[in-house]
Amino acid sequence: MTNAEKKQFDPWPATTVTAVADVLADTSEGLTGREIGLLLAQIGIRDVEGSSNKRERLAQALLHHQRRAGNANGVIRFITDAMAPVRYAQQPHVFSRRRDDLNEVLVHRGLRVNEQGKLARGVVASTLTEAAQHANSLRAELRRRGTHPQVLAYCTQEILAKNAFHASLEATKSVFDRLRQLTGEQLDGAKLVDTVVMPGATGVPRVAINTFTTKTEEDEQKGFAALIKALGSMYRNPTAHDPRLHRPVSDEELLELLTTLSMVHRRLDSARV
After folding, report:
1. Buried b vs exposed e over 236-269: b needs ≥16 C-beta within 10 Å?
2. DSSP string spanning 82-115?
C-alpha cells in the first residue's frame, strides 16, 4: 500500500482509529505532544484543541479529518509518517514496540506495518488470540496471558530486540532479585533460596507461600523452593556462562518460561515475609 495517498480508502471504524491513536499517543511510550502537532500539520490535518490528553487529541483529529474527507487516507498517512524508520535511527526498540502494538490493532483490518514503516496487506484476525498470533508479537501474547509485571520489567528490552536467549536470562534473574528485595538478603542462587524459602534452622520459612502447618503445605513450600532453584539452574546459570550459539531458546520456550516465572511471582505476591 505504498501509494495510499493516490487511492481512496474506505473510512475505518472509529474504534480502530481510536486504538491507533492509543498506541501512537500512549502517555508514556508514544509520540510527544509536539511531535503529534508537527505530524498533523505536515499532513494537513487540523489539530484539535481542548482535549484532555494526547490520545484523545490525536483520535479526534484523525476522526474529524476522516469524516470530512470521506476516506481513511489521512489516518494511513499519519501512521506511515509516524513510523518512518529514519525517526527511530537511535531508538530501534521504540520502532519495534510501536510496530508490534499497531499490528495488534491493524490485524483486525487485514493490515500490518512492515519493516519499512509502510502499511501492507496481511491476514485478518477476528479474535484477540488470533490478533496476538498474527501480529507476531511476543509481548502481545504475554499480555494476553496476563504475565506478571515483575517478569516484563526485567526482560522487555530483550523481547523488543527479539533476543529470546538474553530475555530468558534476565527474566529468571527477576525471581532471585525479588527474594532479595523481600528479605534484605544479599545472597544469590541456591544459597539464597535455601536461606529464605526453605524452613531452615527455625523450621519456618522466611518467605512462606502458605501457613506451613500441614505436611501438604510443607511439601508445597519445598517444591516451590525446588522449582525456583531448577529455573535458575536451567535458564540463569547456563545462559550466563555459555555462548548464545550453543544455548538456543525458541520463542515458544521463552513464552513457557515467562509464564512459569509469572506464576512464581504471583505466589510471592501473597507470600508471608
Report:
1. beebeeeeeeeeebeeeebbebbbbbbebbeebe
2. HT-GGGGTT-HHHHHHHHHHHHHHHGGGTEEE-T
Residue 75 C-alpha cell reads as 489516518
Distance from C-alpha of 168 to C-alpha of 172, rounded to nearest angstrom: 6
For residues 138 and 159, the answer to whether their CB atoms sit within 8 Å is yes
Q: Which helix (H) or strand (E) holds 119?
A: strand 119-121
Question: Does the reported pTM lie above 0.85?
Answer: no
- 1-33 core/surface letters (b: 16 or more CB in 10 A; e: else): eeebeeeebebbeeebbbbbbbbbbeeeebbee
Q: How many CB atoms lie within 10 A of CB 44?
A: 9
Top pLDDT among 36 and 236 is at 36
Quote the CA–CA distance of 249 and 40 in Å, as a whole number.
42
Nearest to 270 by CA among 195, 198, 211: 211
Does residue 240 carry a pLDDT above 80? no
